[in-house]
């Protein structure tokens, strides 16, 4: 079973699944999918694989199928007696879910070989582009971070380049901060598996940017 990584965090859990199994094997693992109306609507084998992997991760986290729902915006919600917040992401090789008991969370997974440099001006400030250029795969990492912050912030229409700030902390670790009227900041973590960059953030509602 390709459950690649489980990370226990304070008040939450992160699970990563390797998308290496064919749809048929995942259906055998999740037999309820055969009668699930959402799954039956999916025609793409790739999308079927992703959907089934997310269901497997939810099972691993102790969540039942009916606890996951989506807003009209596509934002996932979890109706779980313990976990109050959820974020979901997948790339061509991995799928991941992040669950938290207290604070909004965001996760993003991107292929480290994807070229973000040419569109850097769309999501990075001039200062961030300089910083991204000094870090291996900085443009891809920064996109991953900002996408995770976007998911956690829940602010429709947020401007990536102007309202999400990435800077170096005193300890020389990257820390994202969200420049909005809510004054949110985020605890950042990131790592790489199988040439896939995973970034996840946890909102800190008590800290002002």
What's this, in brief?
The chain is α+β, with helices and mostly antiparallel strands.
Helix/strand layout:
Blueprint: E1 3-9, E2 12-18, H1 23-29, H2 37-40, H3 45-60, E3 68-70, E4 76-78, E5 85-90, E6 94-100, E7 105-111, H4 120-123, H5 126-133, H6 138-153, H7 160-163, E8 164-168, E9 174-178, E10 185-193, E11 196-204
Antiparallel strand pairs: 1-2, 2-6, 3-4, 5-6, 7-11, 8-9, 10-11
Helix pairs in contact: 1-3, 5-6
How much helix, percentage-wise, in residues? 25-40%
Unreliable spans are none
Q: Order of SSEs, N→C?
A: EEHHHEEEEEHHHHEEEE
The number of helical runs is: 7
| Strand element count | 11
> Strand sequence of the main sheet, in spatial order?
1-2-6-5
Q: What is the typical, i.e. mean, pLDDT?
A: 91
Gross morphology: globular
Portion in strands: 25-35%
> Distance N terminus to C terminus?
42 Å
Largest sheet: 4 strands, antiparallel
**Overall SS class:** alpha+beta
Q: What is the CA-based Rg, rounded?
A: 17 Å
The multimeric state of the shown protein is: single chain
Structure description:
By secondary structure, the chain is α+β, with helices and mostly antiparallel strands. It has helices at residues 23-29, 37-40, 45-60, 120-123, 126-133, 138-153, 160-163; strands spanning 3-9, 12-18, 68-70, 76-78, 85-90, 94-100, 105-111, 164-168, 174-178, 185-193, 196-204. The strands form four sheets. It has a four-stranded antiparallel beta sheet with strand order 1-2-6-5, with helices on one face. A three-stranded antiparallel beta sheet has the order 7-11-10, covered by helices on one side. A two-stranded antiparallel sheet has the order 3-4. Helix 1 runs parallel beside helix 3 (45-60) and helix 5 crosses helix 6 (138-153).
């Amino acid at each position: 079973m390709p459950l690649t990584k489980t990370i226990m965090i304070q008040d939450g859990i992160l699970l990563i699944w390797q998308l290496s199994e064919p749809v048929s094997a995942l259906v055998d693992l999740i037999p309820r999918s055969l009668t699930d109306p959402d799954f039956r609507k999916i025609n793409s084998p790739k999308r079927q694989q992703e959907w089934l992997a997310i269901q497997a991760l939810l099972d691993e986290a102790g969540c039942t199928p009916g606890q996951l729902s989506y807003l009209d915006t596509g934002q996932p919600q979890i109706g779980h007696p313990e976990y109050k917040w959820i974020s979901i992401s997948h790339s061509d090789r991995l799928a991941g879910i992040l669950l938290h008991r207290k604070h909004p969370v965001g996760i993003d997974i991107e292929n480290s070989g994807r070229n973000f440099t040419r569109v850097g001006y769309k999501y990075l400030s001039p200062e961030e582009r300089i910083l991204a250029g000094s870090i291996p795969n900085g443009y891809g990492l920064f996109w991953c971070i900002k996408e995770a912050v976007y998911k956690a912030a829940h602010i429709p229409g947020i401007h990536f380049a102007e309202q999400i700030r990435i800077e170096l902390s005193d300890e020389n670790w990257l820390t994202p901060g969200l420049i909005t009227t809510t004054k949110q900041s985020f605890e950042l973590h990131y790592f790489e598996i199988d040439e896939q960059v995973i970034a996840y953030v946890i909102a800190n509602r008590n800290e002002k940017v």
